Prior knowledge:
- Residues 1-30 have low confidence and may be disordered.
- Helix 4 (77-103) crosses helix 18 and helix 14 (333-360) packs parallel to helix 21.
- The strands form 3 sheets. Strands 2-3-4 form a 3-stranded antiparallel sheet.
- By secondary structure, it is mainly alpha-helical.
- It has 25 helices and 7 strands.
- It has helices spanning 21-24, 42-55, 57-68, 77-103, 119-126, 160-188, 191-197, 200-213, 217-222, 226-242, 266-269, 271-288, 310-314, 333-360, 368-388, 398-407, 412-427, 429-436, 440-459, 470-492, 502-513, 515-529, 534-537, 550-560, 582-620, and strands at 112-114, 136-140, 146-151, 157-159, 248-254, 258-264, 394-396.
- The chain is globular.
Amino acid sequence: MKMETSKNSRVESTTNSDESINESTDIKSSELEYGVNDNPPWYLCIIFSLQHCLLSLGGTIGAPLIIASFLCIPNDETGNEAKAYLVGSVLVVNGICSFLQATFGTRLPILQGSSFAFLIPAISLLQLPHNQCPAVLNITSSTNEVLYDELTEDGSYATFDDVWTRRIRELQGALAVASVLEILIGATGLVGLMTKLFGPLVITTTISLIGIQLVSVAPDHAKYHWGVAFFTTFVLMISSQYMKNVKVPYPSYSSTKKFHKATAQPFKLFPVLISILLGWILCLILQVAGALSDDPEDPSYQARADAKISAVYSSPWFRFPYPGQWGLPIVTVSGVVGMIAAILSSVIESIGDYNACASICNTPPLPKHAINRGVMMEGFGCLLASLVGTSTGTTSYSENIAAIGITRVGSRRVMQYAGVIMVIFGCVTKIGAFLVSIPEPVFGGIFMVVFGMIIAIGLTNLQHVDLNSNRNIFVIGFSFYMGLMIPLCITEGYIVISTGIIELDQTISVILESSLTVGAFVAAVVDNTLPGTDEERGLTSSGGRKITSVEEKALQRKCYDPPMLKCCMSSFCSYIPFMPNISRRIAAEADSNQANEMEAYGDKRIVENKAFEKDVESCKL
């Protein structure tokens, strides 16, 4: 889920003539307690990083739980244990990706997490006829495992693990091939071309259709108890909107102020966490009051606070997710084509997040090599997610970017700590099982708000578009309608795909059943072929300001140059799109040294002139 952040920050320039370049590159302002290059004490890093981990809780748990039902994972003890493994895998991959992005990617404090954009093609792929959930047979295996009416590669009936791991391996193969495209986009510098082809009109259609197509997911979780679901939605709405500026006092201690009263804004920082806790407590109250059935076959049973608690007891304490844990990926053309659309959408969204994070952290605009490296690192993250088998790709989390403005902590070291903590949490399987045990209607209430926000966030990209233009109105309306109509016609059978080639039929079906793919394609074609000026299309507002001062150039290098740059001080690196231009850096450093020398020479001349004037005055006397 992407958020717009205000770009009202500025970089402080040096005011004293005798300051060195290194001193002027410190990001210390009245708006930030810790800048990008600052290193808070280790205990503060742990506290701040835990805050970021909790803030990403909704997306971290939500994505694998949404896809679980399409993977034929039931809501029983065995299914909940499988969900715990998925959540643990997601946490480990998100932690590794966050650490790599903050260290080698853009080097900004941006958390990486599961993206809902990948759910659309994944669901379309899993709804193909060969991926429909099989029926349970009345026979068991030699190890007393339940068998299903589906054959494995060796011709035997499939067990539960065979059923859901084959489907996730198909998702793995599709995401692995599509992620290579994202790596190439960043490595070759094609990001600039993409930003021209996919303007605000295309981005609006793409993001908003994600939330619209997922509209059936929330009722699927909320149906077990609509009262709990709407209560959770109400709490989330009150916390995030009406009470976001409420300051709660608490006792604090510091070396300067000693014991004193401090204030925090918990409703602004943790509205999702507060909603989950209160919704969970309501489920417990209803359970104790006898309002929820204790029969697992009754729908209200899934609203009980202990409905999935058995997964916490049955799951092992420690388990490290590893590449190929579900088996070798299965590559299908239909899955790859669908995932490519999600990859392109993720790239465009992430570029906006990079610029927003740079603005809120008071850093100079990102150079091209940092953006290319960030996109490439996200591609490697998606590749890692596909090999491990998390069921979805990774992208930048805007919620955590907004939290930087609230906490006034923009240190990349905090995000590195957050990455390590998420890896630890993911390896402790019981933590994932505990998160999975959240009652189903609580998730339904959270999804009502989250998916609505996705739709609205997509619409915010229209703020620089000329909405008085009939051209733009046509592009928006036609793209939205076609993105909704064509998938509906495919699923309802109004349009039947029958070419005689099964693989081709599946590929076309996956493409046309995805509103994201259809809407983005229609919007891109119409927006780039209809006559219209860049100003009319909202393209002129995306350009960033240029850096001219020596101090700000030095600050940009300190913020975005990769840490291994000193190991590859070769002119060849200047031709790599994701590496800084070494020759320009050397020239800039020479200019900086020359400027410092001239400044020092000027200061020396001033002193000599003052001494000379003093001697003249004494002679006059």
